Structures are given as C-alpha cells and as structure tokens.
From TrEMBL:
Name under which the protein is recorded: Vitamin K epoxide reductase family protein
Main location: membrane
InterPro entries in UniProt: VKOR, VKOR_sf
Highest taxon of source: Bacteria
MF-aspect GO terms: oxidoreductase activity; quinone binding
GO cellular component terms, semicolon-separated: membrane
Pfam families referenced in this protein's UniProt entry, alphabetically: VKOR
Membrane topology designation: Multi-pass membrane protein
Localization of this protein: Membrane
Homology family: Belongs to the VKOR family.
Membrane-crossing segments per the record: 24-42, 102-123
Domain annotation Vitamin K epoxide reductase: ranges: 24-151
Length: 162
C-alpha cells in the first residue's frame, strides 16, 4: 500500500464516492460526540444531561431506563463504537483505485442500515413505552437516517462499477 497516495486520496482527491464518504465521516463524527455525552451520563461521569425545557423531553430518564442497558452495557458506548466503526470503514484504503475493497462498502452499508433499524426501534420505544423524548437520541436517529441513503448510494455505485 502506497501511504502517500492514500493520504493524498483521502485529503485532496475529489470524486462522488469520496464526497459521500466524507459526509458519512462527518455525520458519524457528530454521532460519536452525541453518544459520547450519553455514555458519560450512563456511566456516572456526569450527573445530568442538559435538556430542552418542557414535559416532552427527559433525556436523563430515557438514558437511565432499563432499555438503555439491556445488553449488559449502556447503549451509549455501543452506539459511539458503531459511529467510530463507520468512520473507519468510510476511510478505509481511500478509493477503489488505491485498493479499497468492496467488502468495506458492504460493511459500511450494513452497519449504517442496522443502526437505522435500531434507531427506529428505539424511537418506537420512546414513544410507546417511555412516553418521553431524548434530544440526544433524536439527534442520533436523524444522523442514522441521513447516513443510510449515502451508504447505500456508495454501495450501489461500487456494485455497478465492479
């Protein structure tokens, strides 16, 4: 692998694929920050998450619910890890001309789609069970929903150019 070419590709080359993946990286970075804050709350590093006023929003209650810990670990670090993984997959080996494998686009689309499905299920739970909204979770869900068509377009282009 030519590291100089990889660095140049990631930092300077322009293509529709790199533009999509740069957007995915940006959205995933915002998600990483968002869920890092949730993780700090869920693990007791901070005592309260700032919230919007009103009766609808209670990010602290939502993130301290049993649903948020159902896998034996808080869901904040899990989501943060998935956003970090998406950043890694979107950047991996630059572009097809420099050895970016098809599996990295398949994995990227898969993780983004699974995160969107998880976000939709969690939104349903907030609405039907908790009856409270979490500003941070809504932000994460929106990020996931915006990331999905980008990741699918990237995979579709790779499959067409294969």
């Amino acid at each position: 692998m030519n590291l100089s070419a990889l660095i140049h590709t990631l930092r300077h080359k322009q293509s529709p694929s790199l533009t999509r993946r740069r957007r995915l990286i940006l959205l995933a970075a915002v998600g990483l920050v968002d869920f890092s804050l949730i993780s700090l709350y869920q693990t007791g590093v901070i005592r309260r998450l700032p919230d919007l006023p009103g009766k609808l929003f209670d990010s602290n209650a939502v993130n301290a619910s049993e649903e948020a810990y159902q896998f034996g670990v808080p869901d904040g670090p899990i989501s943060a890890g998935v956003y970090a993984l998406n950043m890694l997959l979107a950047a991996y080996k630059g572009d097809a001309a420099h050895g970016r494998p098809l599996w990295s686009d398949v994995a990227l689309a898969g993780t983004v789609m699974l995160n969107s499905v998880g976000a939709a299920l969690y939104l349903k739970n907030m609405i039907t069970v908790q009856k409270k909204a979490c500003l941070y979770c809504l932000t994460g869900a929106a990020l996931n929903f915006v990331m999905t068509p980008l990741a699918l377009a990237e995979l579709r282009e790779r499959l067409q150019n294969k």
